[in-house]
Amino acid sequence: MAPPKYICEGVQIKHPHTRQLQHNTTEKGSKMRDYLKDIVQHTHGLGFIESAKIVNEDGGTQLEAMDDDRTVIVQAKFKEQVPGLTGTFGLPNLSKLNILLNIDEYKENANITVNEQERNGETVPFGLHFENASGDFKNDYRFMSKEVVEEKLKSVKFKGVNWDIEMQPNSASIARFKMQSQANGEETVFVAKTEGTDLKFFFGDASTHAGNFVFASGVEGALNTGWSWPVAQVQSILNLPGDITMKFSDAGAAMITVDSGMATYDYILPAQSK
Prior knowledge:
By secondary structure, the protein is α+β, with helices and mostly antiparallel strands. The chain has helices at residues 29-41, 94-101, 146-152, 171-183, 231-238, and strands at 7-9, 18-20, 52-57, 60-66, 73-78, 88-91, 111-119, 122-131, 138-142, 155-157, 165-167, 189-195, 198-203, 211-216, 228-230, 243-249, 253-259, 263-270. It has an 8-stranded antiparallel sheet, with helices on both faces. The model is unreliable at 2-27 (pLDDT under 50).
């Protein structure tokens, strides 16, 4: 069985001359820090995503990211446009950004501003400037330019499918998923299928140690194909705080949506063949 196809659109890299402008002060540090921590938690915090793309268009702020193996594609939209983050640019080395956001000097009354520069007559952001309340502790974090991030993180457009199963997993189901993944630690994928109105997850097979459990009862729809899904990635997403909705398609796609309060993150998973 071949997994569903996704479309990538590449962008040719150009290297225009740039001219740096003065720092452009934007949002209060605490509010900017909240937005940045939300982004880092829902990307780098999963343990397998190290960069992301920010896109501002149609009056809204969006995020795109994926892991190196393209087992998870992230598409997010903030509920309000993030002040100070304009245009399209990349957030590289999210582990470094995570460190900066958690340094004690920047936890209270820090000044976090966006640096901008002029490129081809257009003002674009090129980094973040961190400064503590007393102004004697500073760091700078550099963005990827639009051209570089669009080459590194080529946009992946999800064609869309009809969702056969949709439900909101409860904490007990997530805990049971973790137990089975521990009991079957050698398994990197699990199979999702329905039996009647039960959605069941299966680990291993008849030739190995195996386990299964009912993840959700009383579901509508059916999954009969027996696609496989990555254990570690699904578990990391389900461990995120917020309201979670899970969808499966027998056409070979799954999507986990997490509402963080600040943004809605869609984690799209192409099916795998075991």
